[in-house]
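Bench log, entry 3. Co-assembly request; chain sequences pasted below exactly as received.
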Amino acid sequence: MTLLALRGLSRRYAGLTAVDRVDLDVPAQGVHAVIGPNGAGKTTLFNLISGLVAPSAGTIALDGRDVTRLAADARARLGLARTFQAVRLFADMTVLENALTGLHPRLRSSLAAIVLRTRGFRREERNAVARARDALAMVGLERRGGERAAALSYGEARRLEIARAMAGAPRLLLLDEPAAGLNPAETVTLGTLVRSIVDAGTTVLLVEHDMKFVMGLSDSVTVLNFGRRIFHGTPAEARADPAVIEAYLGAKVAARLQGSAHA
Amino acid sequence: MSVPPWLSDLFWTYQNVVVSLGVNGLLALSMYVVLAAGQLSLGQAAFMGLGAYASALLTLRLHAPFWAVLPAAMLVPVAFALLVGGPTLRLAGVYLAIATIGLGEVLRAVYLNVDALGGALGLSGIPEAAPLWLIYALLAAALLVFWRIGRSRVGRAMEAMRSDETAALAMGVNVRRYRLATLVASAALAGLAGALSAHSTDFIGPNDYGFEPAVSILSFALLGGIGSPIAPVVGAVVLTLLPELMRGFAELRLILNGVVIVLAVLFLPRGLVAWRMRRRAA
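Structure output for the full assembly:
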């Protein structure tokens, strides 16, 4: 079953086509990676999928529903969550309140119920806090709930961003360079975390530069170069694909590698 | 009731101040609700004026009872908030401030030039129908409502959009709807404050709701802070009492406001009441 379907998706800026007629099917399960050299259009692709940037052409379907014209917040309410390349937490709010904000679309109490503090509202808040705490426990921040988000270290802040995105149990989670700036030990922990996210039933689509991380974790790999999709397949296939090697290493090195492989 | 005569004297001497404290508290909350959602609106004085004029005209021309006048005084500014808010909320921060300043100036010109609205003479002979207890009861109710809303998904969403609008969108917060809703709430509160003050003072004029009061209302929240709904009300109390304590320097009032804004921005970025309320109810 296809969870996310991109068809001919393009984004042009004056004189530059950042994303150029990209087709992509992300099945509802597993970890899927988008890789490519710097400037290949990966982050623009993520911004298109999450609705922060409007496409110049093409369509985006989530779970069979055309969401191309939906605003970012409406897509989030359909179960699309994301993190950002540069961490974007709500700095003055506590760690727990950040995670609670991820549950926003799931909370239904009316203004009247909130003002009157009805039993239903209080029950909903208690459940929300419990779920937010579960999300924090998943990333190992369960003891930090009462601290200001701004007080977290870089690695912790990245994990809180994932917890905030996961609190609402999204269908699809977009991770924009989750391993960037992490040390090797933290990267291993992140890999385990991504696995547990998938086990919890959320499909993961990630953009990443750390090849070892991507290759060991992903069920499928899509390679972008100059905004175009030049490859889609398994990590093993990607490693052997001449076009992918050329995009990363340049034509000369690629030819030499091919030569030595045949020799 | 046996109120000692000295207390009674004190009250009658300072009745204006007692009314102003309550009205300014409501105005501070009307500023708070937009700032808490990360918007800069300078239309609170204009909304207050709409409430004051609507209520005064209903009372003077139609002899409407006071209980019917209050809701109308809220609905008229709400209609204008929808009118101004709809098109400007798509734009980035400062445009709303400019549009709302514009609204205030346009309305001032209208009050001044339309004879049916009293013209330059304003409207006088408004009965003092607003009981003091009602002003404070409404202020207390508004505080309680904002307190409770602040500790819910709505309060979290408002702080989230103030902190990082893009991230708030990614969390599913309907930012545009929240902007319009907070502007509408702000207009309703300011209109209410306008009606209460008009029905406590006998006279209102076109210059009572211009740029100067708009800045004063902003300075309530700047001085007090927006970490909780109590903070801007504290700011309003301080800025209402301060000029009374410095009666001799009445001309310095505006300068004082300016100095307070500059000092608050420089040295008290979180306001006098820096404490931040918890944003959950469980």
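Chain A is about 40% helix and 25% strand. The longest helix of chain A spans residues 119-138.
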